[in-house]
């Protein structure tokens, strides 16, 4: 509900604040007094276009601010949480325009994008201006009307979830089928690559290991020569180092009792001699194990050449990477064998989800077909009530493939003159007819769903007398369930107000500005009498106006 609207420095509005009733708010005033300017300012906080030409004083910023009560609106609370905005029982939407033309939007004093402001405002206010009837010709709106009146909105939500599940499964099925096509396209090449690696039959770290062996075999004679010379010098020369160390140790031992450090030195010489003897024997063993093997060397060179060729082919540098590619290729080849089974399972699951969605869609369709005649009857009765006795609405329902809202295509058809030539509403109804048709439909829908604040800007154009009275009755009934704000020129509608605002111009220091005030009961009677009989109403007009206000 819109609790209050504050406007500053907008067109000929200097500054004003309007506090609205939660029921039927009527705004009247002379032509040109500024009623449409109020709607323009309100449209700013609904995300409408901003223009610096509306600034009254070019040295000050212009702003419009609306305070809303949102207690119990889950979609609003969800929006605020989803956008990290502060929530509460009250919500403040503000729009500012600077002299430079820069526009800023705020929700609860937090800067937001214009799109965020628009999205939230659409949950709070439904502004229906004269000739603003595109929504009525919208298939989504028409379907929503029928579902709301048939109390099918919960079932529709259930269907949409099922439809989403089916679509998701169908997409996954398509991806599997595309994957299969890709698999078969690459199957022969992948099999060739895999067979090539399998035939090579490399073991873990094999190429790195035989590369080291290659270095050894390539230098076998030189290494063996060095080892043999070391063994000879240590153990078999005329003066072997091992023998010389042994003699040194023996010579020192005979004098070790004469000096405290000599036993230690003798022991160290003995240890060194033993270690060198062990080294000599190990050298001999290593030397015996090193042989020049041309056949092995040739095999290793051939093995490495094959490995390096595969390295280059697959852009890798290690045996481990090559084996990883082999395992990946094996998985791809196995996937080709498994994918048909996966596709069959996904096809079955997708068909099951489709059938489940279809059952709910058929339930929705049955409810829509059942509700359509009742909608037509109720709307046509209301149309006759507001001065359109020859007008007829027909809700045409045709079957379609499964889609986001079911299996129905819904089109509102209209015949203004009992010609039995029904055409789509958007093509044949005039602006005034559409406005009144929208009022009738929304008054019916309001019984079933929580509509936002409804604002009607001169919806009464082209009607008068009894028709105006009936429009006022419909608005009054509508306002019993939700807030309605209406700008009108019709006294019969103004007489139904719970709160009556009067817009007027005043001159202050040679400057004209728009202002607004709430009328008392007596002021209302006078204002309505003036709407009936001119600036100086007769006693009959005043009595008529009093009757309208009281009744």
From TrEMBL:
<dbReference type="InterPro" id="IPR004604">
    <property type="entry name" value="DNA_recomb/repair_RecN"/>
</dbReference>
<dbReference type="Pfam" id="PF02463">
    <property type="entry name" value="SMC_N"/>
</dbReference>
<dbReference type="GO" id="GO:0006310">
    <property type="term" value="P:DNA recombination"/>
</dbReference>
<dbReference type="InterPro" id="IPR027417">
    <property type="entry name" value="P-loop_NTPase"/>
</dbReference>
<dbReference type="InterPro" id="IPR003395">
    <property type="entry name" value="RecF/RecN/SMC_N"/>
</dbReference>
<protein>
    <recommendedName>
        <fullName>DNA repair protein RecN</fullName>
    </recommendedName>
</protein>
<dbReference type="GO" id="GO:0006281">
    <property type="term" value="P:DNA repair"/>
</dbReference>
<feature type="domain" description="RecF/RecN/SMC N-terminal">
    <location>
        <begin position="2"/>
        <end position="506"/>
    </location>
</feature>
<comment type="similarity">
    <text>Belongs to the RecN family.</text>
</comment>
<dbReference type="GO" id="GO:0043590">
    <property type="term" value="C:bacterial nucleoid"/>
</dbReference>
<keyword id="KW-0067">ATP-binding</keyword>
<comment type="function">
    <text>May be involved in recombinational repair of damaged DNA.</text>
</comment>
<dbReference type="GO" id="GO:0009432">
    <property type="term" value="P:SOS response"/>
</dbReference>
<dbReference type="GO" id="GO:0005524">
    <property type="term" value="F:ATP binding"/>
</dbReference>
<keyword id="KW-0234">DNA repair</keyword>
<keyword id="KW-0547">Nucleotide-binding</keyword>
<keyword id="KW-0227">DNA damage</keyword>
